[in-house]
């Protein structure tokens, strides 16, 4: 495992299942359970890790490894259930909340797929979950292409025989860990960008240090910014899950008229949701913010589809105390512009790679301690995963919607997973059950935030966009 993947694995706990997931709804009629099993079996050769389990190195002398599971049984990983007909969206959300809130079996390959029948209007659903140590959000979107088809008429391949490779012995694991501990840091040093020589390495690290130093004033401001503390605290074993939707054109219209990027507009709508939530709790003040961690992919174009994590993060102060939606957007836009300049100046990949120098035992202890102590710097997690803009099919049935599930942990008791499909952007809200009995207020508030920005955009003159704006900038 990479250090990032190992961190997600070590952070797993009794009350912190760290898998990502989704709920995809399809037009009916539903396929049979056997058809879905055979489909997945035929696709597994394209994602061999789905037949692998985690093997820890004795005494944590090395990071955990992926090994083939000699007892792999797909019937364990593919489940079948149904709602009482006609099942409503609320019933599906409640079912998905229970399924996604349960921990994966860490002794087996870390994924599950649930076939759900009985939805109203002759629909059915797939609930999927996979541990975060296997895949980040961007790679997860790529893996959907393994299960999904771009046409309803695709002929499925027949499942093939599979034989597990021999699992290494404990002695072999220890020997490999010692060898890797000696050799890997040297390989990382020679692989650092611009570090062909020791001089260039020093200059590169010095440049990163200067860029990080330049961001210290903003970090100091964040340290003194009052946050609404009711959103953080202990996390229990149960989850509430809610969702809301918006049309992609609504965000594009607001971006065109008001400026910024689609992501800026999305974060502004989410700010309204948190504003309504805190107002309902009597915890809203004029200067308060909700600080959200926003994961940022540092995956290069040629690395799309690889199964390990390539993520960094920025921390955005959502100005919930600001009553004017236009000013909320302006403040978020300024922060995101600053982060973009910082991310260009600092090689985030090199910073992430520095974790390769941390001894695995210290890495495991450090991650677990951080999760137990709680995350006091951020109050929420917000992640935006761009999905396909073309229809997807499973066994000839068209997917009509999909909602993302993002885990919570370390004292941060709410996360928002944003997923775009066709012309719709969906918001999946995962929250601690006891701390967020009002999670629907947040979901409704996000929808109101979209509405107020759309109304504001209709009254404002359109801002001139750059002639050549990249797809990433539009997002």
UniProtKB/TrEMBL annotation:
EC number: 2.3.1.20
This protein's GO CC annotations: plasma membrane
Protein's GO biological process: biological process involved in interaction with host; glycerol metabolic process; response to hypoxia; response to nitric oxide; triglyceride biosynthetic process
Domain O-acyltransferase WSD1-like N-terminal, chain residue ranges per copy: 1-266
GO molecular function, one term: diacylglycerol O-acyltransferase activity
InterPro entries tied to this protein: Acyl_transf_WS/DGAT, CAT-like_dom_sf, O-acyltransferase_WSD1-like, O-acyltransferase_WSD1_C, O-acyltransferase_WSD1_N
Reaction it catalyzes: an acyl-CoA + a 1,2-diacyl-sn-glycerol = a triacyl-sn-glycerol + CoA
Keyword Lipid biosynthesis among record annotations: yes
Keywords associated with the record: Acyltransferase, Glycerol metabolism, Lipid biosynthesis, Lipid metabolism, Transferase
Transmembrane regions listed in the UniProt entry: none
Residue ranges of every copy of the O-acyltransferase WSD1 C-terminal domain listed in the record: 309-453
The protein's annotated pathway: Lipid metabolism; Glycerolipid metabolism; triacylglycerol biosynthesis
UniProt keyword Amino-acid biosynthesis present: no
Signal peptide boundaries: none
NCBIfam families referenced in this protein's UniProt entry, alphabetically: acyl_WS_DGAT
Family: Belongs to the long-chain O-acyltransferase family.
Annotated protein name in UniProt: Diacylglycerol O-acyltransferase
Organism from which the protein derives: Petropleomorpha daqingensis
């Amino acid at each position: 495992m990479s250090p990032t993947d190992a961190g997600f694995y070590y952070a797993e706990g009794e009350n912190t299942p760290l898998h990502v997931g989704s709920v995809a709804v399809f037009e009916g009629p539903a396929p049979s359970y056997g058809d879905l099993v055979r489909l997945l079996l035929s696709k597994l050769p394209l994602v061999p890790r789905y037949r692998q389990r985690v093997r820890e190195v004795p005494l944590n002398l090395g990071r955990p490894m992926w090994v083939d599971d000699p007892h792999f049984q797909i019937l364990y990983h593919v489940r079948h259930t149904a709602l009482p007909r006609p099942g409503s969206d609320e019933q599906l959300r409640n079912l998905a909340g229970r399924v996604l809130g349960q921990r994966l079996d860490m002794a087996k390959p870390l994924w599950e797929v649930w076939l759900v029948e009985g939805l109203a209007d002759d629909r059915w659903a797939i609930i999927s979950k996979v541990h975060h140590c296997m895949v980040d959000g961007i790679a997860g979107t790529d893996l959907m292409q393994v299960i999904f088809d771009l046409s309803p008429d695709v002929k499925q391949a027949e499942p093939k025989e599979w034989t597990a490779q021999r699992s290494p012995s404990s002695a072999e694991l220890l020997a490999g860990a010692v060898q890797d501990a000696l050799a890997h840091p040297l390989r990382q040093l020679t692989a650092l960008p611009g570090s062909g020589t020791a001089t260039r390495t020093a200059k590169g690290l010095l440049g990163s240090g200067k860029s990080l130093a330049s961001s210290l004033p903003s970090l100091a401001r964040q340290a003194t910014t009052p946050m609404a503390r009711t959103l953080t605290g202990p996390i229990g074993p149960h989850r509430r899950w809610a969702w809301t939707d918006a049309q992609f054109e609504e965000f594009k219209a607001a971006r065109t008229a008001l400026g910024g990027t689609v992501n800026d507009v999305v974060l502004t709508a989410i700010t309204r949701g948190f504003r309504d939530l805190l107002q309902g709790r009597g915890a809203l003040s004029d200067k308060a913010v909700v600080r959200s961690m926003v994961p940022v992919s540092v995956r290069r174009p040629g690395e799309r589809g690889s199964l390990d994590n390539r993520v960094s993060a920025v921390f955005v102060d959502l100005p919930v105390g600001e009553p004017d939606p236009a000013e909320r957007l302006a403040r978020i836009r300024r922060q995101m512009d600053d982060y973009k300049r910082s991310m260009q100046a600092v090689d985030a990949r090199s910073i992430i790679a520095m974790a390769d120098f941390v001894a695995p035992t210290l890495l495991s202890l450090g991650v677990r301690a951080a999760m137990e102590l709680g995350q006091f710097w951020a109050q929420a997690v917000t992640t935006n995963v761009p999905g396909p803009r073309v229809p997807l099919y499973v066994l000839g049935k068209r997917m009509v919607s999909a909602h993302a599930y993002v885990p919570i942990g370390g004292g941060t008791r709410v996360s928002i997973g944003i997923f775009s499909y066709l012309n719709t952007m969906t918001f999946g809200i995962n929250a601690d059950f006891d701390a967020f009995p009002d999670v629907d207020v947040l979901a409704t508030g996000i929808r109101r935030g979209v509405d107020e920005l759309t109304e504001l955009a209709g009254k404002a003159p359109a801002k001139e966009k750059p002639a050549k704006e990249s797809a990433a900038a539009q997002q």
